[in-house]
Specification:
homodimer; 228 residues; mainly alpha; Arc Repressor Mutant, subunit A; Four Helix Bundle (Hemerythrin (Met), subunit A); 2 domains; three-stranded antiparallel β-sheet; 3 strands; globular; disordered N terminus; DNA-binding
Chain lengths: 228, 228
DNA sequence: TAGGATTTGTGCGTATGTATT
DNA sequence: TAATACATACGCACAAATCCT
């Protein structure tokens, strides 16, 4: 009798995924900004485990490029110049477009209801949102729109690229003194456009819409970053 | 004084990469066919280390989808149906095409010399090659052609997809009773076509050439696999 | 059905490397 | 320059889970 159904005791893998997900989110929310030294023992204690499983999580984060462990020094949250980020952004553009061609999933009415809810929350966030809340919201939207393709490896790679680029977006956006309220507004507009395309059942248009906005978002970052 | 240059003592990461590379190659060469149970202690002893670093390697292979560790059972080399492989193949097609557009690298004369050498070896292999030698050769060609793009994340993802699909190609090709000599011949022809495109400096053509051949290769596999 | 053999997962002490004083 | 502090890397012993007899 294993836990193949229902909520019995969480398996080893579940705990691993939960810790990985949590720490990855902290990195993207800048709870652990680039350069932060993460302590194996401190994290292990916090999550109620020992160093060994935590090292497994940190190793995975290292393979994903989010942290780097150096013997004798520590596990440091990685940083990158905008120029280094550009390769990842351009690849992310192309993979995003692929979601419209590779195993697209026409969403059901429940999906549209969830999207409506997200868009409403996004509208409220324009005036009252903090950078942190906005990032959380962005992550939630990303995970939702990822359901529009059934191609598992594509989803996996898009997720990797998203977290690797998104965490530095917030850092760079603050440093470049971008008008975050304006960014919120643009994002909200993007979501409405995506909803329109979804209602028309045009998943390729949805993908191109996302691609265009990611491209413009990076463009704004680069212009301000290069200027100021 | 660290080992940043020259051949001083290999670093921790070097040993890790070497073990990972070796075991991954064994999986693709069918030294460890799908379903094989890998022993942590046996592998650790063979590589002259303990379980801990070996577990780190196996964990990475698990993240890459090549093996799966189950508590109390063992670490098993994963298997997949052709239908499951199709998603990965289609994504690989698209990423291969991207190598011609994302940070293409015009190769120098030394690269062309190496390619000439590879093509010559490929010609010999048509008559005298074993499936194992052919796979090794295919891996070497893949790594060489990967140099034609400078986009690091694209290379990384292409590598992941290559090993995840290639290891099952050999299994499926043997089971579907494909004419391997004919496959060798086709591959050699592909390489000559790629060389032609490279001499013309048309990297986009090189990418499309690779894409076309990967597509046709999978097509042959699917036809025979579905028929017999 | 129960028990033993085998395997992966966990916890912790120790070794090794780095940075700072 | 040397010593001390502290971090990750490693190795081993034990716990937990599964399979086979």
């Amino acid at each position: 009798m294993t836990d193949d159904q229902g909520d019995t005791t969480p398996s080893v893998r579940d705990r691993h995924d939960a810790m990985h997900h949590e720490i990855r989110q902290r990195i993207c929310l800048l709870d652990y900004p680039p350069g932060t030294r993460l302590s194996e023992v401190a994290l292990a204690e916090e999550f109620g485990t020992s160093r060994t499983p935590m090292r497994r999580v940190l190793a995975r984060l290292e393979d994903e490029g989010l942290v780097q462990s150096v013997h004798g020094v520590g596990t440091i949250v990685t940083d990158a110049e905008i120029s280094e980020l550009e390769q990842e952004y351009r690849l992310r553009l192309e993979l995003t477009e692929l979601t419209g061609r590779l195993d697209p999933v026409v969403p059901g009415p429940d999906f549209m209801v969830r999207l409506d809810g997200l868009i409403d929350r996004g509208a409220e966030m324009i005036t009252s949102g903090t950078p942190r809340a906005f990032t959380r919201f962005d992550m939630e939207v990303f995970q939702t729109l990822l359901e529009l393709t059934a191609n598992a490896p594509l989803r996996e790679m898009l997720e990797r690229l998203y977290y690797k680029t998104k965490r530095l977006w917030l850092t760079a956006a603050i440093e470049a003194q971008l008008d975050l309220t304006e960014e919120f507004r643009i994002f909200h507009h993007e979501l409405e456009a995506i909803r329109l395309a979804l209602r028309a059942g045009d998943l390729e248009a949805v993908a191109h819409m996302q691609r265009a906005h990611i491209s413009m978002s990076f463009q704004r970052l680069r212009q301000r970053g290069g200027a100021g």
